[in-house]
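P.,

For your records, the input lines for the assembly:
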Amino acid sequence: MADELIERRIELPGDGGRLRFLQPAESAELPDDGGVEWAPLAPYWSVLWRSGVALAAEAAGADLGGRRVVELGCGLGLPAIAAARAGAVVTAVDFEPEAIELLGRNAELNGVAVEGVVADWSDPAPLAGRGRFDLALAADVLYEPGAAAALAELLPLLAPEAWIADPSRPGRPPLADALGAEALGAGRATETSTRGVVTIQRFELGRTAAGG
Ligand SMILES: C[S@@+](CC[C@H](N)C(=O)[O-])C[C@H]1O[C@@H](n2cnc3c(N)ncnc32)[C@H](O)[C@@H]1O
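Structure tokens returned:
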């Protein structure tokens, strides 16, 4: 874990209230307000990405009471924490152990519990083995080659619905194309919203043979 953590706060819209979170000091100034958001000098999990903030706002305004929610590639995990505050039972996943360690502390700081899991989204079996969720969330997870295909395979195994937030970086395909609607178990995009430069696409996910 980074030596120095600082506490930050963001205000969520509507009745979402304020989220408090600890963040490694070295990442707190990065970067995410220019035309292109990249943070080459810091571990990606430790940066406050616009997509994570936007998806947290989306979750905070949703009726999630009692729903089982999983967030993939959670990083600082603000959507997971916002969903838990909105009444969901939440699991958050990242392949960086430090992210999951800090997530537990940040959930506690906001008076909620979030189950943290260290896992790689390109290995579906351990995550699919945790049972079905009602909703999958993911923010800014499509930046590396192969991620879209791996997520398109995994998501229908996990949940019937997914909300994916993406910052629409220049030169990237539209979100639904990037994920490949056909690969999503014949799923389809149902609703799109934008928060600043971030697009949030809701997908209805088709059932796959493995998904039952
Ligand atoms: C750009 S960051 C976004 C973090 C957070 N979702 C947000 O929007 O603030 C991408 C996150 O995905 C995680 N990640 C990348 N590849 C992964 C994989 N194969 N399995 C699980 N997590 C992964 C990274 O560790 C990082 O936390």
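Two observations worth noting. The pocket of S-adenosylmethionine is lined by residues 44-45, 49, 51-52, 73-76, 94-96, 99, 120-122, 139-141 (CB under 6 Å). Residues 46-204 form a domain with the Rossmann fold fold (CATH 3.40.50.150).

Regards
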